């Protein structure tokens, strides 16, 4: 289940053949509406072996620059934070032929600084606002279908699934709705939806404020991959006139470490690039490790970019603290026991040279780091130990 015998080169050829065969019957995805049904979205994925997140990652993040706000406004085309797409219609089946919650989701995703889960939360809020339902039961059913459509957009995205689940729990779990008329109850849902969206959107800044306190003058920080929340912590620390240096792993095959190094250099932060295999060699010079997370699981462990586990192992053996920065909407009701006990997120890998077909290529994009290798979690709920995560999940969901 986890390994694929075909290389990226062969998969690319297969993809080209499929596109040629379907060229007469399939229209360009950008010129047709997205259907909320999971079967339609599965058909839109030209290569189901590769996670949709990694197929659209380059378009989503683009070239990361410091002027994210300007990029966001330009990419959104005047779609400011908190606004709702005028084209979105959330009524009966006939009303949804041209538009869907997935269209709204993809509109929000055009903002480079907006996390995928927050884009989903904003989209679900627009479902409530635009709904033509006349009863609470109809509205809840419509909202659940919209959430299921978003989760089926990419079943490998932990933050997307967790964000949708948390939204449903936060918005609908109130007994007061049972004693109000429908219009008042709908208004209450809209208020709660907007509030949850605002909380989620501000999470990164809250974490940055908490995490930068752990950065001290003269320290050396090892960072793996490009995590926007980790970058926000480092940027906040730099703006507070703290003097520190950062070791960035290259982050193959995405080379996300190169992007992070580029951004930190613009902030005049001393940066050193490491090849991924030089982590143990350089760990003696490191004071702490900062990583992000695709998801935080019930045990307090994290699922993150491939290589996080081995970095945490090395840091633990050398008594270096490992700090993880993650928003609470990434807290997921998962309990993996080992590396293979979760749905794989596969990504394309190009080694730059042809790979023989009999050579097996590991294309998994992430690994699982158990809680015993983590020191603290920086979240918008506070600075937590891994053992507290299960308690916070109970609070969030129950």
From TrEMBL:
GO terms for biological process: translational initiation. The keyword Transcription regulation does not apply. Keywords: Cytoplasm, Initiation factor, Protein biosynthesis. One of its GO terms (molecular function) is translation initiation factor activity. Residues 23-40 have a biased composition (Polar residues). Residues 13-46 are annotated as: Disordered. It is found in: Cytoplasm, Cytosol. GO terms for cellular component: cytosol; eukaryotic translation initiation factor 2B complex. The keyword Secreted does not apply. Component of the translation initiation factor 2B (eIF2B) complex which is a heterodecamer of two sets of five different subunits: alpha, beta, gamma, delta and epsilon. Subunits alpha, beta and delta comprise a regulatory subcomplex and subunits epsilon and gamma comprise a catalytic subcomplex. Within the complex, the hexameric regulatory complex resides at the center, with the two heterodimeric catalytic subcomplexes bound on opposite sides. Belongs to the eIF-2B alpha/beta/delta subunits family. This is Translation initiation factor eIF2B subunit alpha. It comes from Erythranthe guttata.
